[in-house]
Design brief:
The complex is a heterodimer of chains A (about 375) and B (about 260). Chain A has 13 helices and no strands. With about 375 residues, chain A is mostly helical. In chain A, helix 2 runs antiparallel to helix 3, helix 2 runs parallel beside helix 5 and helix 6 crosses helix 13. Classes of the chains: A mainly alpha (about 375), B alpha/beta (about 260).
Chain lengths: ~375, ~260
């Protein structure tokens, strides 16, 4: 049988055309979407208004601006639904006129708009829920977290305390970068002779990745102070506290970052090392000129991730009595019996970490694009 | 046009294999290799993938260890304890199937890295040497490019230039055209042919039978870790003795790779 597809009768296409179902205009589902959109807007406006009205002596103007903006933005939901209905109606009339291809295009637009209704609608519902939560009980929830008078009283003290978090973070970051590289390189020492020191590096990483950071901080800071570690008395007590906190965090994060380094170096294909070695480069030169420079590019995103973690974990220093921002916020909390200061401390952390997180994502995306091109 | 008039037998052998055995765990990849290769001799290794020809080449510059036997290069031990790896890797250059250029360095830096770091040449001198090599292979305008901007054939030619920058006395070519687009094979082989004409000692693992036939002084057919047959191109291609070689050549011919 040499019944090649080329000689198959064109009747197949004709048959398909005749039996193809008529265009799905999406009119019904678009009307449902419109109904849902109207309900969502009603809910959002109601809870936004309730939030706005919950301020005892009138909402401050920034709140009014935000509420009005959100209320206007919620209109995007029925707007999209309107577009969906319009496109669906158009699809129906085109389909009836026999212009099936154009009808399908219009129906596809209706479907797109329905997805907009879903996406924007869900977002509006989340906003509505938050506004409801903050406005409920005459704004009691809001008052616990955001009281502007306490904000004013605590802000200066909190930013001053946060400066200490930044200093702890900076000092630890520099030490971690160096210390972890040392650990990672030691882990790569080849041969039997390197076995004991390799074992130590592995043991260090296992131990400090396995211990809660809060526990290490307690052991290192209190322990070394109690044991009067030689040389420690050269520093003033606040300096002692600062550097012991930095030491503890370096030990914890060094273990993580050493693994990041190792994964980065392992990700470079062995053929690169083979090429370098066969050109006469020594093991050390191969690491320095070929493996590490390539590894660093891949290490950057996970490295920055760990640093975001480190920024947050500077708050753990509060357990050993460092008056950093979380500790300070706790003092305000007890003083005013209100959590505004803690929320502000949270905001300060976000101001630091969010740009870093965005930057990390941008790096990862750029790296992926480059890999796709290459 | 083999350069047989060089009479490689007159000089002491340049690369010697004596009873070489190599295991990868339970895999016995080289099973007793005995072979002497003269100065300026071009020897091609052919055989099915996995027959051990790449491994054999890698053993010559101590990228792989052998478990039994002895390899000597230029009269010096190239295996076992006490190998002078620095000496070995200076006289032996290798080019890989996958090019293995350093992707984070420009073409120029790829070539000057080893001369500056290993031979301790001044930067300017290494640079001049690299530029001269690039000019010779017609890639001088690519000196500032990164390897991923080059075609496979260009990358492989840079890889050869990178090895030549160390001024080796013997070149190991490990299936250097196997990863290339068929249209790009020619430019790389032309460069190898130049090396042959200059009298470079070459050990080449290859699937390019026609080229091997053209340039080799001797061809070694490897099968399951053995040198199943060694002979001149005419002996190997016109009058194969070993049954495995005959069936190999038959399959190659059927696949129109010859």
């Amino acid at each position: 049988m040499t019944d090649s597809p080329i000689t198959a009768p064109p009747a197949a296409a004709e048959r398909l055309r005749a039996t193809r179902p008529r265009v799905r205009t999406r009119l019904g589902s678009s009307i449902v979407a419109m109904a849902a959109a109207l309900i969502v807007v009603a809910l959002t406006w109601w809870s936004l208004f309730a939030f706005w009205a919950s301020f005892a002596d009138g909402a401050p103007w920034p709140v009014t601006v935000i509420v009005v903006f959100l209320a206007a933005a919620a209109l995007a939901v029925p707007a999209a639904a309107g577009q969906a209905v319009q496109a669906a109606l158009q699809a129906r009339s085109l389909d009836r006129a026999g212009n099936h291809a154009a009808a399908r295009v219009a129906a596809a637009r209706a479907r797109d708009m329905q997805w907009y209704v879903l996406g924007f609608g869900l977002a509006a519902l989340v906003v509505a829920f938050l506004a409801f939560l903050l406005g409920t009980n005459d704004g009691a929830v809001r008052e616990v977290f955001f009281r502007s008078d306490i904000f004013g009283k605590s802000f200066r003290g909190l930013t001053a305390a946060f400066w200490l978090n930044i200093k702890i973070f900076m000092a630890t970051e520099v030490l971690v970068l160096v210390w972890a590289l040392l650990v990672a390189v030691v882990r790569q020492i080849p041969g039997r002779a390197g076995a004991p020191i390799r074992f130590l590096a592995v043991a260090y990483v296992d131990v400090f990745r396995g211990l809660p950071a809060i526990l290490v901080l307690t052991l290192v800071v209190f322990g070394f102070q109690l044991a009067k570690l030689p040389g420690l008395s050269l520093l003033s007590p606040p300096q002692q506290l600062f550097w012991l906190v930095v030491l503890a965090l370096t030990l914890v994060y060094g273990a993580y970052v050493a693994e990041v380094y190792r994964a980065g170096m392992d990700s470079i294909h062995w053929s690169q090392a083979a090429a370098a070695r066969s050109l006469g480069l020594s093991q050390g030169q191969t690491l320095r000129y070929v493996i590490i420079p390539q590894g660093v590019r891949r290490m950057l995103p996970p490295l920055l991730n760990d640093f975001i973690g480190l920024q947050k974990d500077t708050a753990l220093a509060s357990v050993v009595g460092t008056v950093e921002v979380f500790n300070k916020a706790g003092l305000y909390k007890s003083q005013f019996f209100n959590l505004t200061a803690v929320a502000v401390a949270g905001l300060l952390f976000l101001i630091m970490t969010i740009p870093l997180a965005r930057f990390t994502d941008w790096l990862i995306r750029r790296d992926q694009q480059r890999t796709l091109v290459g | 046009m083999a350069a047989t008039d060089d009479q490689p037998g007159q000089l002491p052998p340049y690369v010697e294999f004596a009873g070489v055995h190599k295991h990868y765990g339970p895999n016995h990849v080289l099973r007793g290799i005995d072979l002497d290769i003269g100065h300026h001799e071009v020897v091609c290794f052919i055989g099915a993938s996995g027959c051990g020809k790449s491994t054999l080449l890698r053993c010559v510059n101590a990228l792989e260890e052998i478990q039994q036997g002895q390899i000597r290069v230029a009269g010096e031990a190239a295996s076992g304890p006490g190998v002078d790896v620095d000496f070995l890797r200076r006289v032996v250059g290798i080019v890989f199937q996958g090019f293995n250029l350093f992707p984070h360095m420009t073409v120029l830096r790829n070539i000057t890295l080893a001369p500056t770091k290993v031979l301790k040449l001044p930067e300017a001198e290494a640079r001049a040497r690299a530029i001269a090599l690039l000019e010779r292979i017609g890639l001088a305008d690519k000196a500032g490019e990164y390897p991923d901007r080059l075609s496979g054939g260009q990358q492989q030619r840079v890889a050869i230039a990178r090895a030549l920058a160390m001024e080796p006395e013997v070149m190991l070519l490990d299936e250097i055209t196997s990863a290339l687009d068929p249209a790009l094979v020619g430019e790389v082989l032309a460069m190898v042919r130049e090396l042959v004409d200059e009298g470079m000692t070459i050990l080449m693992a290859t699937h390019e039978m026609g080229f091997a036939r053209d340039v080799a002084n001797r061809i070694c057919f490897m099968s399951e870790g053995n040198l199943a047959e060694v002979g001149t191109p005419d002996e190997i291609f016109q009058d194969p003795q070993d049954e495995r070689l005959r069936s190999f050549l038959r399959r190659v011919t059927e696949a129109r790779r010859m």
